């Protein structure tokens, strides 16, 4: 097998592009995909300070590594959620990686900040699911931190498989509100909220895995033990089946939506006001985070007095 570009021996075949690459041409392919995405959606420039969510998973580690080496200014942020071994291993991987490469990393420990781990707080708040509680807390803390420190853009490692699976789920249930917001770049709806971008949205999970291997990057393989088999994994499997029969299906599905169908789902006009307790944006008078923290504190007071 020869590299489609330089004719040297290839080490990988990318079926959907009908191309084989040697190591250096794969790197070129990879960087062209990412730079193309950044440019197409004007995600950020080299002068901008990018906040990057570093969970320790392969996608975020690859994005972190790529952006730093491509000359972007990155501040990585990691949430230590206190979910047993999974959290301690993730934190260790991210911290060691930052130290080894002299990358800038901020770790936010939910327990230090809020007085309890995610499972402990979710229990006190009697929230319906620990996962959705966790998502709410992370989104809130991230926006507040970014606002206080003056960040405007947040990058995540979502890839083509993630985006196509989300799209399939939204289409199957005709979640029109979610279809409006499905984009590689989400504008900020409020001065206190971040712009969110996904520079890897044109790369498949497999391509990112190749990059991670090539660069010998450490990452956490296991998913969070609290995320029961998510529906999105079923959607990924279905799409992968179609992809194997006709390479390029995932790409055509996602890009077809972004180019042709997305304009059919215009953004609704959501009015955001500032939370009466914390001042962060919300559609109600008190934001969801302050509401759940009120429940947590009430539970703590009750157990102290009883
Ligand atoms: Fe938040 Fe699993 S990562 S509950
Ligand atoms: Zn609030």
**Assigned CATH class:** Alpha Beta
Count of helix runs: 12
Helical percentage: 40-55%
CATH-assigned homologous superfamily? HUPs
Report the C-alpha radius of gyration, rounded. 21 Å
Oligomer: single chain
State the domain count.
Answer: 1
Q: Proportion of β residues?
A: 5-15%
C-alpha end-to-end distance: 73 Å
Uncertain residue segments: none
What's the shape? globular
**Distinct ligands, ions and cofactors found in the model:** FE2/S2 (inorganic) cluster, zinc ion
- Side by side, the strands of the main sheet go 5-4-3-6-8-7
State the CATH architecture. Answer: 3-Layer(aba) Sandwich
Helix-and-strand structural type: alpha/beta
What's the total number of strands? 10
- Calculate the mean pLDDT score and round it: 94
The H-and-E topology, N to C, reads as: EEHEHEHEHHHEHHEEHHHEEH
- Main sheet, how many strands, which sense, barrel? 6 strands, mixed
Kindly report the CATH topology. Rossmann fold
Q: What's a quick, concise take on this entry?
A:
It is built from 12 helices and 10 strands.
Molecular structure report:
A 6-stranded mixed sheet has the order 5-4-3-6-8-7. A two-stranded antiparallel sheet has the order 1-2. A two-stranded antiparallel sheet has the order 9-10. The model has no long low-confidence stretch (mean pLDDT 94). Helix content is 51%, strand content 12%. It has 306 residues and is of the alpha/beta class. It contains 12 helices and 10 strands. The longest helix has 20 residues, at 130-149. The site of FE2/S2 (inorganic) cluster has 9 residues, from helix 6.
């Amino acid at each position: 097998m020869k590299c489609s570009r330089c004719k040297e021996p290839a080490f990988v075949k990318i079926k959907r592009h009908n191309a084989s690459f040697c190591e250096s041409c794969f790197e070129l392919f990879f960087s062209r995909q990412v730079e193309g995405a950044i440019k197409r959606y004007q995600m950020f420039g080299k002068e901008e300070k990018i906040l990057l969510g570093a969970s320790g998973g392969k996608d975020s580690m690859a994005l972190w590594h790529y952006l730093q080496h491509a000359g972007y200014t990155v501040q990585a942020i990691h949430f230590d959620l206190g979910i047993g071994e999974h959290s301690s291993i993730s934190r260790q991987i991210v911290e060691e990686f930052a130290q080894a490469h002299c990358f800038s990393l901020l770790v936010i420990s939910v327990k230090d900040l809020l007085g309890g781990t995610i499972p402990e707080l979710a229990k006190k708040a009697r929230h319906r699911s620990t996962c959705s509680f966790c998502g709410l807390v992370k989104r809130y803390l991230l926006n507040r931190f970014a606002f206080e420190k003056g960040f405007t853009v947040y990058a995540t490692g979502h890839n083509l498989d993630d985006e196509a699976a989300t799209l399939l789920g939204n289409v199957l249930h005709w979640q029109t509100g979610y279809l409006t917001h499905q984009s590689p770049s989400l504008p900020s709806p409020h001065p206190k909220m971040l712009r969110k971008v996904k520079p890897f949205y044109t790369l498949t999970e497999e391509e990112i895995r190749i990059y991670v291997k090539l660069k010998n990057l450490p990452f956490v393989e296991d998913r969070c033990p609290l995320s029961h088999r998510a529906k999105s994994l079923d959607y990924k499997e279905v799409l992968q089946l179609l992809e194997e029969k006709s390479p390029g299906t995932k790409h055509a599905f996602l890009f077809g939506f972004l180019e042709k169908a997305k304009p059919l789902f215009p953004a609704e006009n959501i009015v955001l006001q500032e939370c009466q307790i914390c001042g962060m944006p919300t559609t109600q008078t008190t934001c969801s985070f302050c509401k759940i923290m009120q429940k947590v504190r009430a539970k703590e007071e009750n157990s102290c007095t009883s």
